[in-house]
Protein 1
Amino acid sequence: MADHKKKESSRLTLGAMAAAGVGAVMGLRALRREKPSFHGRTVLVTGGSRGLGLEMARLFVAEGANVVLCAREQVELSRAKDELEASGGEVLAIPCDVTDRVQVEALVARVHEHFGPVDVLVNNAGTVQVGPLESMDERDFSEAMDLHFWAPLYTTLAVLPEMKQRGWGRIVNISSIGGRISVPHMLPYSASKFALVGLSDGLRAELAQDGILVTTVCPGLMRTGSPPNVVVKGDHEAEYAWFITSDSLPGLSMNSERAARKIIESCRRGDAEALLGLPAKVATLVRTLAPNLTAAVLAQITRLMPQDGNTERHWGFESETPLTRSWVTQLTRWAAQRNNELLH
């Protein structure tokens, strides 16, 4: 009886080892399949002339991809293109307002003529409005929705037919922790990023059957250098001060080059979601487990923030004070210099 039990135990052990071995082999094969090289692929990055878009473009170029940048500002596009070409990249820079569907379709047609069909689409173009609800108007919400919802939808619809025909494609939608938790004094931004998360998650479910993998990226604060180009309302100097200071703190914000690497690896694997930075991960978890507590904390934070309802618009670079020019914001100012963010 004891011998029979030992033999049975041995069979079970051997079976478990065999199953583990088969699982490991299958897992390795799956990883190989899901981690393609971007060498020779055509990658379209919207909002690619500066900030996070430029950081990602540098990495795609380093890997040998054909990179297409689009943005509204020709001067910024030209500077970004010159930099990337100097590093040996194959780069096409096309001025385009991605909130205009006609311009988007013309953009994709030009890319096809120059490089062929788009293999990887990165919807990165964005805008930020900072200020209390009382200072915001319909224009603020409309602009945020146009750029964070409609623009990604237009670009996605434009590249989908050829991705479906080939049975392969990657789409990366850069949302935000503001698309998981509504950040005080950034309501148009958060509302539109929530909309992008919903769109992106839905696209993932719809397109997986066609071999197209959609990744939703939700970073926390990143040191891209973008604060000088945000729209600030209400007590614009005070609002800009808290925004750029938060953006500059190493424990709270993430280095944009590191963020870009993580995004590209998530795209390579075809991940469903990428939450970037410990604060973003913790905040998302707390919001899920304790929504009432999260709402109470956010309400208390809002009470401590500037309450001026002035609706006049200012750019970040127009809202500088001695504090925002001090050593406290040095990391953000270095990032602005690196990432083509110095001039609006």
Note: Residues 37-338 form a domain with the Rossmann fold fold (CATH 3.40.50.720).
Protein 2
Amino acid sequence: MNTFLSVFVTVISLGTIFGCLALLIWCSRDKMGMEEGAPTGHTYDGISELNNPLPKWWSYLFVFMIVFSLVYLALYPGLGNFKGLLGWTSSNQDVRSLAEYNEAADTARTDELLVQYDREMIKADEVFGAKFRELTYEDDGTTYRAIADIAHDEDATKVGQRLFLQNCAQCHGSDARGARGFPNLTDGDWLWGGKPEQIKATLLHGRRAAMPAWGDALGEDGVREVASYVLSLSGRKVDAVEAQKGQARFAVCAACHGMDGKGNELMGAPNLTDNTWLYGGSRAAVEDTIRHGRNGVMPAWKDILGEDKIQLISAYVYSLSNGK
């Protein structure tokens, strides 16, 4: 934070603590000039106020909390940009990428810095890493179990499901049925292939698909005609003349989707004949896709999760459309 905010936070924090201390001292003094326990003359609803001091336990507790607050703020970050005497931090700050985080984590371990997130990750790997390896490796401890075999292991798929919910559900949904622009992983329709190793490759390295915009090249009439032909491939009722004209223009699409419109897993080009639509199958949605194009990105998880966890997630995803 900038210098102004740092000073502002420091003044407010210390001002509040010392203000409470001043209030405690002020309240502990007898300013009435009266004998302890004597009536003050203030009566409300039949209840008289007596000149009694603050309870000792209450005062001691107040003093303890003030001292505790000052010690805590001295040891840990909390006063603006002051990092605390212990050098503790909740996480590596100001990182902008995974590479920067890994570099910061390595530096923290080398310098023995108290980075809480790093310490918890190391502890988690010590506790759970062995379990992940037990579920993903053969008895020799060096060879991965086949993903199809792991998919039939109830304990392994339960772990894979939890990893999926933590990392994949934000896009694909907790039930893995996807949403507009995010594939349904339960229906057996795969852009990049649904074989075990293809699923794993998708998770490891990510995918980047690009449907170019054809609006300028085709014009509005061309967009409408190609949309009619594309819709006809899945058995939809369209204007036959428009569809025929669209078929002639479809040559620009065939390079990715094939002359038969059945797609190409090597390029992530969808099958246009099965009536399964990633961005919507209405005429308006199809025309919008042709006119403006689409860009889909599946992030790579290898450096984030590691191959052991990806092996379990791959098995879980594979089990969704292939049974257990």
Note: The chain has three domains: 9-28+50-89, 136-206+300-322, 208-298.
Protein 3
Amino acid sequence: MDEEYDAIILGTGLKECVLSGLLSVSGKKVLHMDRNGYYGGACASMYLEQLFEHFGKKDCDVSGYGKSRNWNVDLIPKFLMADGVLVKLLIFTGVTRYLEFKQVDGSYVYKAGKVHKVPGTEAEALSSSLMGIFEKRRFRNLLQFAFKYEENIPSTHEGLDLTKVTMQQLYEKYSLDANVRDFVGHAIALYRDDNYITEPALATINRMKLYFNSIAKYQKSPYLYPLYGLGELPQGFARLSAIYGGTYMLNKPFEGITRAEDGSVTGVTSEGETAKCKIVVADPSYFPEKCKKAGQVVRAICLLQHPVPNTGNSQSSQIIIPQNQVGRKSDIYVLCVSFAHNVSAKDWYVALVSTTVETDNPEAELEPGMRLLGPVSEKFVSVSDLYVPTDDGKKDNIYVSASFDATTHFETTCEDIIKIYESITGHPFDFSELDKKLEEFKNLTEG
């Protein structure tokens, strides 16, 4: 502990482990500490007995669920977009060598009391029960415009500057009704609410491209999921950091920091010893005074003996319930993985229902999603405070990540990772060397 480090990372959540790996690869000397005895922090994966104990059900009989070690249940399950930032980070750093992925079987959206597959191709769009015949044509026209639109090529703009034209105006141009807007905005562009409608349309068009480019990688859906659960991701980045000289210490209590006269951090103290450093990166639990509460997320982890109904017997799936379909301000998310991903015993499924809390009865807010699951063998409900940092960390060199939101994908998580990395380094993250590695990753991924 008497050494000096470029960076000390506190917490082994995914964000902290990714940043640890990126900083190590860039030549920084990194010390990574966690007060817990396991990797993953708030997004850890747990064996069955650990899961029951974590939720205060230690005395429950788990004999009917198969071997405990056959379970790897994520506390905060999320999918990876096949062409998204996290996959690019995995490829960029080479962490893919430590992981195996399986494609998620299907992406669905809830409309008028029924579950519908989200169109993944133009042909699917034309045959989808989500839209009438005229809406299908209008939707196809929007897709064709989105696919060809390039920000730096004016000839693709059709006279529309999407840095100024709002998404509302673009919807109106193509005469798309409220139902189509719902699944475009929430199941394809993956917005959590409707605030995006009054914003410039370019961000939504780019999100639509990300969705369909991700589908194009492996066809069935845009999502991937690691075998043995998300706990493999932080451990993969931890291995990467170790290869580049990073040091990891679990079960290390955090006893505070030391500062210079100007207030900048100079070290981290644990068990009476202080390790010197230039910067600190931490999850919100280490520096609550540097965070503000931005709401709550309610989640229900459910153990099922069957696939989620109306998803074609899929072994993995996502269903998004747009806010307008159930009279809410924010979406409800349903995610399912299974024994096919080595996260449960044979023929068992793990489903998550999550949303942003809007009332004083959070669990009741999950009911529209819970009704889609069918019989539930066991349920674990949690309500988590959502914290965001109050500053960018540049003043005192303490960079705090935001809590995990209710979404079932990693795009918002990666936005936070990249923002912190760019704040630390002072320059944009460069993905320019990725192209030559993309095909290699595709060959390593199960179809």
Note: The mean pLDDT is 90.
